[in-house]
Amino acid sequence: MEIISHPWFQRLRHIRQLGMADVVYPGAVHTRFQHALGAYHLMGEAVQTLRSKGIAISEEESEAVCIAILLHDIGHGPLSHALEETLLPGIKHESLTYRFLLSLNATFGGKLSLALQMFRDGYRRRFFHQLISGQIDIDRLDYLERDSFYTGVREGITGVERIIAMLNVVKDKLVVEEKAIYSLENFVTARRLMYWQVYLHKTAVGAERMLVNIMKRAQALAKGGHVPPCSPALACFLENDIKLEDFESNTRGINYLEQYSKLDDHDIWYALKQWTRSQDKVLSKLSTMLLERKIFAVMMSNKTLRKEDIRKAQDWARDHYGITFKEAAYMIHHGTVSNEAYVRGEKRINILLKNGKVADLAGVSDLPQIRAMSKVVKKNFICFPRPD
After folding, report:
1. Mind listing the pLDDT tens digit of every residue in the chain (388 residues)?
2. CATH number of the domain that 190 lies in?
3. 71 within a domain of the structure (yes/no)
4. What pairing do the DSSP bridges indicate for beta strands 173-177 and 350-352?
5. Do the strands 350-352 and 333-339 form a parallel or antiparallel pair, or are they unpaired?
6. Phi/psi at 168 (5° precision)
7. End-to-end CA distance of the chain
8. Are the beta carbons of 129 and 135 closer than 8 angstroms?
9. Where in the sequence is the domain holding 162, given as residue range(s)?
10. Per the domain annotation, does 100 fall within a domain?
11. Would you call 340 helix, strand, or coil by DSSP?
12. How far apart are CA 121 and CA 377, in angstroms?
């Protein structure tokens, strides 16, 4: 309760789990706070299951792994993944979570030390880390079911209770007993479908790319000496080029971890409302479009995007909005999205067969699509404004 009551954890109440997905699914307004509590509950169930099967887990280990999963998302920024690449390019939210854990550990007199070890996979009993981060971890077991419920996309439903009931440990590796293989097949299939139908839905991608472009434009203005009106915390990340090591020291006299802890979705929405009145034509137009749900159109293809198609879209935006060619770059966006339903390798899903042997899920499943889903599917996209 001391951790849950901490302002840094309470901040998760104000960060949506699915970022901009509510532009497609109006019910998708659940938060990282709800997900963290749900994952904490499921971790307790998993620990109880393993103990019932004779796996020795001390009270200290139980508390540590539950704390680790409770705090696993504390480093997320506003609107989930959408702003990582602009506000903090090259810095993953897991790295910031680790910095938060270090600071909280100092606050609580070293009581989070074991949770830190488990989070970083530095504890000798490595199955604890697999419960926190892996392809059948507690994080995924919670968010797939939760996201399915709040979006109404029924394909995301998985047999969470069955999978947790079939967890076991063999030679310090987390395994799932063969009796749950059909639930696991459903889990992998659900993950693949949820990616295409929710996480990578074209309209949600278009909205996120608009937000990314808005932030890039705001950053360009801020670094040029014209900080657009926003909260002090957001201004801090618009004005400065910040590296991960800056979070470890008060670079420029700024405590970046503290500033980051003050950022949530409300900062972004407040800024967008202010920026609709901006003197800058690009920032004003994009902010207004996003608030009025005039989302970028998105075209996805398995083929590589041609430079002339990107240039053509940029030329259209320049002429249509009466802006420069350089400014028109903010009115389009192109890139790649990928769907990694199941990746074979070190973090594979291990199946405990009835003969006592351990095998990879993709090798024992009788569904050919499970093996097919172990291949990463990538699609190229370009998004641009719809004609007025």
Report:
1. 999 999 999 999 999 999 999 999 999 999 999 999 999 999 999 999 999 999 999 999 999 999 999 999 999 999 867 778 888 988 999 999 999 999 999 999 999 999 999 999 999 999 999 999 998 999 999 999 999 999 999 888 889 999 999 999 999 999 999 999 999 989 998 998 999 999 999 999 999 999 999 999 999 999 999 999 999 999 999 999 889 888 887 777 789 999 999 999 999 999 999 999 999 999 999 999 999 999 999 999 989 989 998 999 999 999 999 999 999 999 999 999 988 777 766 678 999 999 999 998 878 876 666 766 667 788 999 999 988 7
2. 1.10.3210.10
3. yes
4. parallel
5. unpaired
6. -155, 175
7. 51
8. no
9. 2-201+343-367
10. yes
11. coil
12. 28
Question: 209 lies in a domain?
Answer: no
- Give the H/E segment covering residue 360: strand 358-360
Reference 67, options 19, 29, 95, 108; nearest CA is: 108
DSSP assigned state of 372? H
Residue at 236: amino acid letter: C
**Angle, helix 265-275 to helix 202-223, in steps of 10 degrees:** 70
**Tokens standing for 178?**
């063969």
| Amino acid found at 122 | G
Tell if the pTM clears 0.90, that is, is over it: yes
Amino acid at 3: I
The CA–CA distances, whole Å, from 375 to 185, 202, 316, 345, 381 equal: 15, 21, 37, 12, 19
**Total structural domains within the chain:** 1
| Residue 295 placed within a domain | no
